[in-house]
Amino acid sequence: MEENILSVANSWPIWIAAAVLVTTVVTQSVIYIKHAYNNAPLVGVTPAECKEAVRIGMVTSIGPTIAIFIVVVSMMIVVGAPITWMRLSMIGSASTELTACTLGAQAYGVELGGEGYNLEAMATAWWAMSFNGAGWLLICAFLTPHLEKVRMRVSGGDMRWLSLITSAAMLGLYAYMLAPYMVGMGGQCFVAIVGFVVMYILIKLSAKFKWLKEWNLGIAILIGTAAGIIFA
């Protein structure tokens, strides 16, 4: 990897460009929370419940954030700190972004951070991450209202049936993501089983220790990550 790559990747123009996008994301988040507070009485949610929801969300995010931090360090070395900060602020999936920039470098003909990884290869990795996330953003911006109408038509307005459809879609999505790791029956399969067992135990314990419920996801991710480092 050429020495001058990171000097370009961490230069002040890149920091400014990344800061603009991150500021946009933060502004959107604040507006979203404000609208949620303003419309909460319409669905019978009290201000106290809103505050509790925000607090639980902040606590629950600690575990995933720690897991993402491990990947962040790797990304900063090959694509720079500002781009890493910007991409994970917009998308939030460290593994997806790392995969995208790896495929971008491979499309250029080199390995990410390896021999021949020059400024052009890094730019290709940046573009790969951008195009990879663009589809998600466009779908959220233009198709979300229409998808809600489709979902309501499929359910026929029955909220119980709608709840089952939504749950089935989520289970199918996560099963699809998990299946490749289970098929090989190797270390990754063992890590998935460890995560499942730990989460099951934590859910059972949460019935007795109510405070533990907010930390379930974070603890399960940390233990799963440790198991991945050891066995995968």
How does this model look, in words?
The chain is mostly helical. The chain has two domains: 5-142, no CATH class; 157-231, no CATH class. The chain has eleven helices and no strands. The protein has helices spanning 5-9, 12-39, 47-60, 62-79, 81-90, 94-108, 119-142, 144-155, 159-183, 187-206, 216-231. α10 packs antiparallel against α11 (216-231). The mean pLDDT is 80.
Could you name the key traits of this structure?
single chain; 232 residues; mainly alpha
Compose a concise summary of this entry.
It contains eleven helices and no strands. With 232 residues, it is mainly α.
Please mark out the parts with pLDDT under 50 across 5 or more consecutive residues, or reply none: none
Report the mean per-residue pLDDT as an integer. Answer: 80
What is the succession of H and E elements?
HHHHHHHHHHH
| Beta strand count | 0
Structural class: mainly alpha
In angstroms, what is the radius of gyration?
21 Å
Main beta sheet: none
Overall shape: it is globular
Supply the number of helical segments.
Answer: 11
Q: What count of structural domains?
A: 2
Estimated helix fraction: over 70%
Termini separation:
27 Å
Query: In what range is the share of β-strand residues?
Result: under 5%
